[in-house]
Amino acid sequence: MSYTTIPELFYNSVKNLPDQLAYSERKNGEWVGLTYGEVGKLVETFAAGLYGLGVRRGDKIAILAANNPRWGISDYAITGMGCATVTVYPTLIPSQIQYIIDDSDAKIIISENQEQTDKVLTFFDGSKKLETIICMDDSVEKKNNTIRFQDVLEIGIKSQADGYNFEEEAKLCKPDDLLTLIYTSGTTGNPKGVMLTHNNLVSNVLATHKVIKLDHKDSFLSFLPLSHVFERMGGHFLAFSSNASVYFAENMDSIAENMRDIKPTLMTSVPRLYEKMYIKVLDKVAGDPALRQKIFWWAIGVGKEAAKFLQRGKQPSGMLAFKYGLASKLVFSKIKDRVGGRLRFFVSGGAPLSKEIGEFFAAANIAILEGYGLTETSPVISVNRPELYKFGTVGLVIDGVEVKFADDGEILCKGPNVMKGYYNDQAATDEAIDSEGWFHTGDIGDFDEDNCLRITDRKKNILVTSGGKNIAPAPMEIALGTNKYIDNVLVIGDNQKFISALIVPSFEALDEWAKLNGVSYSDKSELLENQGVKQLYEDNVSSIMTKFAHYEKVKKFELLTEVWSIETGELTPKMSVKRKVVEKNYAELIKNIYAG
Asked: Rounded CA gap, 497 and 519, in Å?
């Protein structure tokens, strides 16, 4: 395995196993696939088509689409031409898309379908450099500088006949060349364009291979957005470099069905997926007969004892091994079937994973390997290993990367994974990367006795009460977020006498509770005003808060009728809560909490 650029990685896999299944998507109920050889030819032809449209080395080309084979094909074509891919989340609204397109100087945008194309058309005429929209959907109407993906392939065939050679062009790419611009989610202000080079991503891929052994027998289910660096590195470049098969999930609602269908061996996800799986398992158990519940919790107890060995790459022995085998047969095999039955492990990132959830799945011998990193670090800085995974940590630092701590505990990182800088923003670059090359993550942490990295909180998120107590909200938000009746939560209390929270209920779970308890209501407001509902949340929050120190506990909370979402601006595309946005939107409500 030897490559220093993404095109070298690409050709290494295409030529290694051309007949191996590379990409699959579901069409009309059937999975339709492309081999590595077929992907290779499509990439070469599409790149030739882009060349025929006037694209040249150094240009910026944007992709605005959900995960699908043509996303991957476009990315390899763009980056192999010596251009940079600008990734755009398909959940963004037109004004947000326009900001990224204009700031990045994108020349062409590749959209997914008519809906995404229409977003671009709202600002196309006013865009600085945008010349063409290429739509992946070949049924889209051709007008207003919009052409179809198939049209570009046809142009490519002509360009190839005229002598354009993508493989020769790809050989000109250098490790330090700009590979991609990924715009940070922007919890405050406008997002910044993170400049990542070929070497940044390749170094992360190679370092991850040393941690996790992958090959052509592996299959990935891809559903996190490829616009985000986590899935781009793990589910895209890493998977392709392994000659693994990637299946693109139809949508967020189909993940459970898709897992049972394709039986993946590996998946990357943010903690929210594991939280939902955990809640569903416990919900089902709660409805089982008493004897079955007793067997389930006995098995979990046995599994937690066995996990102490499994988490360090060992197997339980003696009577524990016998009991664990029985627990696996009676209980854990059914949990494993829910994720397809072949899963080697999950990889979690993007937000902190609840220790409770990690230990629960570990008991069932379903390892969740939590890692840590940022867009600016390509992304991985550290990750747990199959032979050593510890919940409450984000694992050992990966090969080639250095980590140290500032005087205030901030995590500093140096290595080949650290970004080139922020596009068009030297001041922000200088603020993030010091004169010695250390990237300042903005996270607080330390090492444990096994040299595993622990993250305690975001530096900017530390709450300081009026009594002078420094409180990290993340542990409380994680604990509250695992409750079946809570969809989202924000813990607040900076400069205040006590800690409080804004809670978005899980209205699906709450509706079931209302039916079981004979509570009728006409709208969400009436439901949340019900005394039984209020008591339900009081009891749940109080129970969860018993794990925290007196000064950390949530003393008051407000239940919100409006669900937070990416579209309404409270959540980032990776489903993190935008603290500043929520605090601004609910400023009056927060004021009333403390006025009382």
From this structure: 35
Answer for the pair 32, 24: CB distance below 8 angstroms, yes or no.
Answer: yes
- For residue 490, the model assigns a pLDDT of 96
CATH of the domain at 144: 3.40.50.12780
Length of the chain: 596
CB-based contact 12:4 (threshold 8 Å): no
Give a yes or no: residue 233 inside a domain.
yes
Look at residue 269 and tell me if it is in a domain.
no
Per-residue pLDDT at 185 exceeds 70? no
- Please report, for residues 7, 46, 163, the alpha-carbon distance to residue 13 in angstroms, rounded to integers and kept in the order given: 10, 18, 24
> pLDDT tens digit string along 570-579?
988 777 888 8
**Lookup: tokens for 553:** 């506990």
Q: Do 571 and 578 touch, CB atoms closer than 8 A?
A: yes
Q: Which of 234, 266, 262 is nearest to 249 (CA)?
A: 262
Q: What is the pTM of this model?
A: 0.86
For residues 244 and 367, what is the distance between their CA atoms, to the nearest angstrom?
Answer: 20
Cis peptide bond prior to 505, omega within 30° of 0: no
Residue in 220, 223, 261, 248 with CA at minimum distance from that of residue 344: 220
**Euclidean distance between CA atoms 91 and 455, whole angstroms:** 29
CATH number at residue 543: 3.30.300.30
Least confident of 91-100, 461-470, 555-564: 461-470
Of 237, 265, 282, which residue constitutes the final position of a domain? Answer: 237
Q: Read off the pLDDT of residues 274-290 as tens digits, 9 standing for 90 and up.
A: 988 999 999 999 999 99
Residue 404, beta-bridge partner list: 412
Q: Report the candidate in 151, 67, 164, 139 with the shortest Cα–Cα distance to residue 108.
A: 151
The total number of structural domains that make up the chain: 2
Residue 262 within any structural domain of the chain: no
Confirm whether 251 is domain-assigned: no
DSSP string, 56-115: -TT-EEEEE--S-HHHHHHHHHHHHTT-EEEEE-TTS-HHHHHHHHHHHT-SEEEESSHH
Specify which residues 443 forms β-bridges with. Answer: 458
Range of the domain at 570: 462-595
pLDDT, position 368: 97
